[in-house]
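Checked the freezer inventory, then went back to the computational side. Two predictions to log before the end of the day. The first one is the construct we discussed on Monday; recording sequence and tokens without edits.
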Amino acid sequence: MGADLISRLVSRRYGKRSTMVTTNVGIGAWTDVLGDAAVASAMADRLCHHCHVLRMTGRPHRIKDLLPEGRGGAGSGGGD
């Protein structure tokens, strides 16, 4: 259900409007999240056509005050 709604939104905006997507899931894992390889592939094709992909690494800003910079744990900047 959710994958279908997102797919329709992307399809309606494709070629007409700019769309920004943020995710902590890599494009290669969208099939696992959406549950449909065809839908995931079509969305990736439409979103990545004429796009700029920005990969951001490091500690999430929203937890900046939870752990000291040098300490391990979630979000310690180990990369993907």
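The second is the one RB wanted added to the comparison set:
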Amino acid sequence: MSEIIVHCDKVHHWFGSAGVLYDVNVRVARGNIVAVVGPSGCGKSTLLRAIVGTHPPRQGRIQMHAHGKPPYEVRRPGRDRGIVYQRYSLFPFLTARENVAIGLMLDETSIPFRLFRFLQWRRIRRRHLDAAAAFLERVGLEHAVKLYPHEMSGGMCQRVAVAQALIMKPQILLLDEPFGALDEAMREELQRMLLRLHAENRVAKKAGEPPPHTILIVTHELNEAIYVGDRVIGLSQYWNWAEKGHVACPGATVVYDEAAPVSDPDGPRDFEEFTKQRDRIRKAVFEPEYLQDREEFRRYWTACAAEAPHRE
């Protein structure tokens, strides 16, 4: 039904004797914008780092399915996965446009090339800067191309960091609590930025083209998760592990996986639907006394299969 980009297959992770992730099975399809939520300490960031490749799982495997290539196991970071952390890293001595272009420079040229083939490098540099300006426009920063980080707000710098990751055209973009340190107004602007990326996906699908953006975002805000994502995954240590024969919780696992309503970046939110889904997520993911079977709220792919005949 869908082209899978990332497949987390029976992923387990632990630190010392403490289980963090237990039997995590997640498939992310091309064009998905997936929000991952869960209680503090449940391993959301650990899962993200496992996908990035900096912290491979202790057991199980994570596979990337790059377009047109056979699947391969993630064991280290790679260009096919971009990541933006809550604490963005921009070079203070470069403008916004230069910060966005630096990945292309490092990927396509070397220091000797830039030193000894200056005329060729100048032509390539112009192409990189033009591409960077285009990506800044896509994240709403066309007016800030010549600004330095100290001249921009935290939200603007975070958008530069997103453009910096997007310009490398990763198969999947990973966002680890990217808006956590921002005020409410700036958060909402960045949320609308993600919705505009989702709108680009819809335009591509209607044109019969592969959607360009696949995003996995970790957030602790339920409203944000439902608003920016077309799918919400809940990781939690609150599940019926004792009934499965464990004497202690072996780690957090996926207890919730459902589609979310897709919002228009310039339209109103459907607060009624938000409330219904938020209540389900709170019950399944955040209530320690509700120890449900892991399958009860994992309905995303079942719903996709049920919808497929109607789409055909």
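For RB: The mean pLDDT is 89. The two ends are 11 Å apart (CA to CA). Let me know if you want it refolded.
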